[in-house]
C-alpha cells in the first residue's frame, strides 16, 4: 500500500515533555510515502520551536490541512507560509469567518482565525487554496473529510460557540474536518477539535471510505464540556470500534481523558503530547 511508511508526529499539544513547548493548540506532521503533510498550525509558536527541535522542516510540507477556523489551529499560519511557498492548502468553506465563545457570566471572547492568518491566506495565489465541500483524497489512501454531517442528536459542537458577540447566531463550526489514513491494518483518524462529534466523524469516514476497521484515533476529541450521556455514548461507540489505540489530545479534557482510561483501559488509551510519534 502506498501509505508505507506512515508516520504521524504530534507537533503541538496542550501537553509536552520538558524538552518541548506546550500550548493550548494542536498540530501534527504526517509523513506518508514521499509526501509531507502539515495538519493545523497551533496557536502561539510551539509549532516552529518543536518542529525545529524534532528536526522537521515545515518548508518540506507539500500539503497543509486546516481542521477548522479556530485561533488555536490557525495561529502561526503566516510563519508557516513564510517558510513554505509550495504547500497546497485544504480547508472547508467558511473557515475564514469571525467566531465567538460567549460563556454566560463572562465577556464574549473572539476565537476565530487570527486576522494576520486571515490576511496571509487572502494574500496567497488562489490556486494554492482548496476550499472543500465534500471529502477528497489528497493522495491514495489519505483523505480529508470536508464538512461532516451531524446525524447524532447526542453530539453538539461542545461549547458556547456563536457567530457574533451577542449570542444571536449559533456557530455550528461547519468547517470542522478531520483526516483519515487507510493502512493495511485499518483506518487511522486524525482530528483537530472534532466539533462535528467523534461518532459523527467516524461514521462518516467509514461511509465515505467504504472501510470499517478503525485502527486508531488521534487528536482533540472535544469532550471537555460533554455530559455523562454524551460521554457514555462516545465510550460505547469506542468499545464497538475495537481500536488498537486512542490518543486523546488537546481539547479532549483532562477529566474526560481519565474517564476514558477507566472505561476503555490504558492498553488502548494513550494520552497524547507534543513529540509523540504514531507509526502506521
Ligand atoms: Zn482546539
Ligand atoms: Zn475548535
TrEMBL record:
<dbReference type="Pfam" id="PF00753">
    <property type="entry name" value="Lactamase_B"/>
</dbReference>
<feature type="domain" description="Metallo-beta-lactamase">
    <location>
        <begin position="24"/>
        <end position="250"/>
    </location>
</feature>
<dbReference type="GO" id="GO:0016740">
    <property type="term" value="F:transferase activity"/>
</dbReference>
<dbReference type="InterPro" id="IPR041712">
    <property type="entry name" value="DHPS-like_MBL-fold"/>
</dbReference>
<protein>
    <submittedName>
        <fullName>MBL fold metallo-hydrolase</fullName>
    </submittedName>
</protein>
<dbReference type="InterPro" id="IPR052926">
    <property type="entry name" value="Metallo-beta-lactamase_dom"/>
</dbReference>
<dbReference type="InterPro" id="IPR001279">
    <property type="entry name" value="Metallo-B-lactamas"/>
</dbReference>
<dbReference type="InterPro" id="IPR036866">
    <property type="entry name" value="RibonucZ/Hydroxyglut_hydro"/>
</dbReference>
Amino acid at each position: 500500500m502506498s501509505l508505507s511508511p506512515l508516520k504521524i508526529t504530534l507537533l503541538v499539544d496542550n501537553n509536552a515533555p520538558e524538552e518541548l513547548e506546550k500550548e493550548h493548540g494542536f498540530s501534527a506532521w504526517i509523513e506518508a510515502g514521499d509526501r509531507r503533510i502539515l495538519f493545523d498550525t497551533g496557536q502561539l509558536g510551539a509549532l516552529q520551536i518543536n518542529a525545529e527541535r524534532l528536526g522537521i522542516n515545515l518548508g518540506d510540507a507539500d500539503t497543509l490541512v486546516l481542521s477548522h477556523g479556530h485561533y488555536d489551529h490557525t495561529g502561526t499560519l503566516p510563519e508557516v507560509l513564510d517558510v513554505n511557498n509550495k504547500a497546497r492548502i485544504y480547508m472547508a468553506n467558511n473557515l475564514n469567518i469571525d467566531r465567538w465563545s460567549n460563556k454566560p457570566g463572562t465577556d464574549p471572547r473572539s476565537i476565530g482565525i487570527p486576522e494576520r492568518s486571515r490576511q496571509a491566506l487572502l494574500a496567497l495565489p488562489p490556486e494554492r487554496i482548496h476550499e472543500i465541500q465534500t471529502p477528497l483524497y489528497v493522495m491514495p489512501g489519505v483523505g480529508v473529510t470536508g464538512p461532516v454531517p451531524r446525524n447524532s442528536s447526542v453530539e453538539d459542537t461542545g461549547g458556547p460557540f456563536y457567530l457574533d458577540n451577542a449570542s444571536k447566531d449559533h456557530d455550528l463550526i461547519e468547517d470542522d474536518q478531520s483526516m483519515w489514513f487507510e493502512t493495511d491494518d485499518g483506518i487511522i483518524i486524525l482530528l483537530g477539535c472534532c466539533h462535528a462529534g467523534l461518532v459523527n466523524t467516524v461514521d462518516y469516514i467509514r461511509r465515505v471510505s467504504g472501510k470499517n476497521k478503525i485502527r486508531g484515533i488521534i487528536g482533540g476529541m472535544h469532550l471537555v464540556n460533554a455530559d455523562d450521556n454524551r460521554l457514555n455514548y462516545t465510550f460505547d461507540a469506542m468499545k464497538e470500534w475495537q481500536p488498537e489505540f486512542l490518543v486523546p489530545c488537546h481539547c479532549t479534557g483532562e477529566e474526560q481523558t481519565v474517564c476514558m482510561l477507566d472505561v476503555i483501559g490504558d492498553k488502548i488509551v494513550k494520552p497524547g503530547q507534543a513529540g509523540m510519534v504514531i507509526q502506521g
